[in-house]
Specification:
By secondary structure, the protein is α+β, with helices and mostly antiparallel strands. It folds into three domains: about 5-65, Structural Genomics Hypothetical 15.5 Kd Protein In mrcA-pckA Intergenic Region, Chain A (Roll), CATH 3.10.290; about 65-155, Pseudouridine synthase (2-Layer Sandwich); about 155-298, Pseudouridine synthase (2-Layer Sandwich), CATH 3.30.2350.10. The chain is built from six helices and 16 strands. It has helices at about 15-25, 30-35, 110-120, 145-155, 230-235, 285-295; strands at about 5, 40-45, 45-50, 60-65, 80-85, 90-95, 125-130, 135-145, 160-170, 175-180, 185, 195, 205-215, 215-225, 260-270, 275-280. A hairpin with a 7-residue loop joins strand 11 and strand 12.
Length: about 300
């Protein structure tokens, strides 16, 4: 069980345990409420304590932040490159043929969750933070507890947790770089499909054209919000759907068998250690083939 501890300093005296858990250890109100029901969820000097207690300097406050009963999907033996990890989180390079979650419609199919269930020890939870569509490749962050997932989720789309994608679209955007601010909502009658919708959630994508040729453009894409299918919907909305995007553009297996989208770079300040991570995932071969066509102009 993952436990976080805090040695009380003189400056912390006069502050209740609940406030210290939230401010210093970054626990949410919901997690604190759950820990109060655990045998040793919240302890002061090794003894269970109430959250309205005022600890003294030198006291040690501890909280069990690991999942009490980690949910483990069916394990699958599939290659899954983990490029960085510690006891709280990991970053992997997701292949394009894996969905993140176990599908209720396709329970016999491999998934990122299933692969991690085989790779991680039983005490680790599996909580995807920056989810990727099944066809999207590249860097994806996974928390090993609900505690860490909540912290990272709140950090997403801030300077401390940002991502950049590489995409290849059909055509060329009207400007070399710009911002797409179009709200996104559900497409009526569909479970997963989205559309630009005036009544939808505010959505913001930044783009830059890196190269153009052969009727396609190489893009750098930065999501400033995290809506479902955001990058795909926004590029289609400006008349430049991603190559191979059968849902928002046109299916073309001869070009590429999936939407040409890759999570290429990640910058993250680790919320517990302060370590600054900068991770890069190389563009996969199917997108390299398209890139060669763009650079060759045909």
């Amino acid at each position: 069980m993952r436990v976080r501890s805090l040695v009380i300093t003189p400056a912390m005296e006069g502050t209740r345990v609940r406030a210290l858990l939230k401010k210093e250890l970054l626990l949410s109100d919901a997690l604190i409420s759950r820990l109060k029901r655990r045998e040793r969820g919240i302890c002061l000097n090794g003894e269970k304590c109430y959250t309205n207690v005022y600890p003294k300097a030198g006291d040690v406050l501890s909280a069990e932040v690991g999942d009490e009963r980690p949910r483990r999907p069916r394990p699958w033996a599939v290659p899954l490159p983990i490029i960085w990890q510690d006891e709280d989180m990991l970053v992997l390079d997701k292949p394009g043929d894996l969905a993140v979650h176990v599908s209720l419609r396709e329970e016999q199919c491999a998934s990122v969750e299933g692969a991690l269930a085989l790779l991680l020890p039983p005490g680790d939870g599996i909580h995807p933070v920056s989810r990727l569509d099944k066809g999207t490749t590249g860097l994806m962050t996974v928390a090993k507890s609900g505690y860490m997932h909540d912290i990272l989720r709140r950090m997403l789309h801030t300077p401390d947790f940002r991502r950049e994608y590489i995409g290849i679209c059909l055509g060329q955007p009207p400007e070399r770089e710009g911002h797409i601010r179009l709200p996104i909502g559900c497409l009526p009658g569909y479970t997963y499909a989205r559309r630009v919708d005036p009544g939808g959630a505010a959505s913001h994508t930044e783009y830059r054209v890196l190269a153009a040729g052969g009727g396609m453009s190489l893009l750098r894409l930065i999501p400033h919000t995290g809506r479902t299918h955001q990058l795909r919907v926004h590029m289609a909305a400006v008349g430049c759907p991603l190559a191979g995007d059968w849902m928002y553009g046109r299916e073309d297996p001869g070009l590429i068998s999936r939407p040409a989208l890759h999570s290429a770079e990640l910058w993250l300040r680790h919320p517990l250690t302060g370590e600054r991570l900068h991770l890069v995932a190389p563009i996969p071969e199917d997108m390299r083939g398209l890139l060669r066509r763009v650079l060759a102009g045909g």
